[in-house]
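FORM 12-B: Structure-to-Sequence Request
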């Protein structure tokens, strides 16, 4: 807390002196959150949700990734959520073996997906962009998605991962507002990037409530950056004075136009 207050104090002179205005983002690309909504269900990360998202015209589709107990990457928001949605509440947050994971049915009907399944699907649909959550280790992503980096949007959970992903040529890297090194990274590589080595932060993955956070209110006044906003099911959830910041929007239920954007 003391460290964050220190960084905020450093920002105050720039805020007072700043009179810079920035062009706002004119449209937002919609991201089907956790595979997208299906039959009223969200967070399924399922094959059927993915297929429906494609049919609905989404070009950006997000999946949450976790490792099984035998170290295979699969799509699930959390083990507790997965076990609950597959009718195995008594398993709590137990981590499953790969073979047991693939045998489950989400809400008794939907098929879970491994990272290998998702990679295969996206390789067959070259107009789609894969958006990742939970895992941002470049070595892991290269192992499972070796040919998709030009069509991957990765949420990075440390500045180290952010820089490594940029260096490796990933299409777009989002710096996560939940990263442990958030305060120092935003100060150094968004505001004062000319004074520090490393890539300037261009995109921040931000929760809708984050617009009211003092740090982001300050940043808005002195530096242009783009926001990937989560999770929005009504445009009224975005503060009117901040709507132009959202270049990407994670959603369960907003439907895209023919170009995959907000209509």
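FORM 12-B RESPONSE
SEQUENCE OUT:
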């Amino acid at each position: 807390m003391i460290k964050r207050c220190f960084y905020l104090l450093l920002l105050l002179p720039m805020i007072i002196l700043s009179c810079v205005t920035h062009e706002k983002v004119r449209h937002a690309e919609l991201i089907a959150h956790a595979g997208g909504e299906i039959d009223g269900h969200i967070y399924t990360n399922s094959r059927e949700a993915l297929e429906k998202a494609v049919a609905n015209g989404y070009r950006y589709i997000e999946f949450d990734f976790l490792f099984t107990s035998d170290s295979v990457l699969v799509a699930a928001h959390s083990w507790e959520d997965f076990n609950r949605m597959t009718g195995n509440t008594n398993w709590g947050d137990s981590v499953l073996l790969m073979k047991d994971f693939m045998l489950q049915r989400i809400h008794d009907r939907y098929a879970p997906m491994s990272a290998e399944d998702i990679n295969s699907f996206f390789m067959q649909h070259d107009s789609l962009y894969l958006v990742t959550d939970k895992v941002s280790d470049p070595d892991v992503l290269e192992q499972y998605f070796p040919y998709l980096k030009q069509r991957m949007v990765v949420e990075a959970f440390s500045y180290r991962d952010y820089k490594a992903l940029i260096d490796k040529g990933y299409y777009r890297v989002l710096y996560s507002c939940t990263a442990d090194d958030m305060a120092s990274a935003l100060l150094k590589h968004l505001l004062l990037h000319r004074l520090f080595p490393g890539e300037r932060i261009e995109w921040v993955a931000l929760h809708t409530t984050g617009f009211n956070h003092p740090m982001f209110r300050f940043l808005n006044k002195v530096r242009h950056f783009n926001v990937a906003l989560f999770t929005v099911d009504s445009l009224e959830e975005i503060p009117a004075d901040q709507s132009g910041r959202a270049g990407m929007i994670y959603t369960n239920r907003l439907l895209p136009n023919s170009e995959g954007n907000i209509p």
